[in-house]
């Protein structure tokens, strides 16, 4: 199986930069062993004007069978010979996608130290896949690639050129062309869509495939019109995984719609505060209140759940009392920004060992969240639909169970004090609800009761005698007898 990637260039921006971007030198033919055979990378042309890299995977049909995964769909009993004689060596399938991601892993992530400025820029690209199995036909190929900005040429391959009356095979020759995409984007499209079109994954689909799909789909899958088909085929039609992926994509979409507004609202709040002799912005007051409560609790290892763009993580890092800080968010985009802002890649080893960011959804229990001293949910709960709140409650209070949990949320009563907020409006387009002090207390008391915690309430921002503070914070502390018992059991 085989594909080529070409670009064109000028003397100032030579096409041979493709070699830097792919991390493969144009003058060398290189081979790599992968789980299913040898992958070769070679260039058929390489000058300033044009450069073409080819990826060729020599599938080891015997290895494929030994691994017990060459049977194809259903593993029919008469498939003994079909195990060895099948299209796998020739057709671009999930095997090629796996080879692509292992041979071009840095390029797929958009990492290029030699030409960092080019890695992030769209470039002229032409990708050709001579034999692509296309379940769903040329029409589906178009529906998958065209919304991503590709000009698509798809020619059906005849079953046998000597006998045109036999009609077409299920293979097509695919050419994708664009100058609006980065190389990393192009590779990620292929990584997901080759197996989708082949629709016969060679390996068992485990639950980390959902993570892989969301990572490779970052920036394009949440808005793709064929998202459901892509997700379901990529996950080999395992409905539970497909449902999880679809839900997480929906959350990503909402969170991203969101993020772009987060700064706006903080700025708006700041601008508003400016009329009153420059007091500290509310977002900063919130952060200070959280850090003070964490210090009082004696926590050293802290989770920031729904960390957004990492402002709190950043502040916690400055305080030596916190030895380990983990930011979790459902939005890959928010995490990318957080990582850039924290300069994670340039941090010294000591600092870097104190901080971690990962993607996850609070609507699902997650063992990675266990064993911390404290968890912060700063302005997060109001982003979930009310019916999902019990799932978040279980993830945090039922499963992760840190000794201290801090939850902040807007106090809706205070909204009448924001001059720029029209009456009856919430503060943020994505807030699913905003609670009165009474409503928040009722929820928090019940949560504490159900899970063996005590809870206290702390106002954040000016505590108005009539309507209360703009932000309300609940400080949950696990009952000491429960804590002792659990600490002993652990
Ligand atoms: N904690 C930050 C960001 C609040 S905005 C702050 O105080 O400024 C809400 C954040 O919650 C967003 O980054 C959004 O992506 C995240 N979020 C929303 N639903 C989530 C979920 N189900 N799981 C994890 N994070 C979620």
From TrEMBL:
Q: What GO biological process, any one, is recorded here?
A: RNA methylation
UniProt keyword list? Magnesium, Metal-binding, Methyltransferase, RNA-binding, RNA-mediated gene silencing, S-adenosyl-L-methionine, Transferase
Q: Which Pfam families match?
A: Hen1_L, Methyltransf_12
The domain of life for this entry's organism is Bacteria
Catalytic activities: small RNA 3'-end nucleotide + S-adenosyl-L-methionine = small RNA 3'-end 2'-O-methylnucleotide + S-adenosyl-L-homocysteine + H(+)
> Which molecular function terms from Gene Ontology are attached?
metal ion binding; RNA binding; small RNA 2'-O-methyltransferase activity
Q: What is this protein called?
A: Small RNA 2'-O-methyltransferase
Organism for this UniProt entry: Streptomyces dysideae
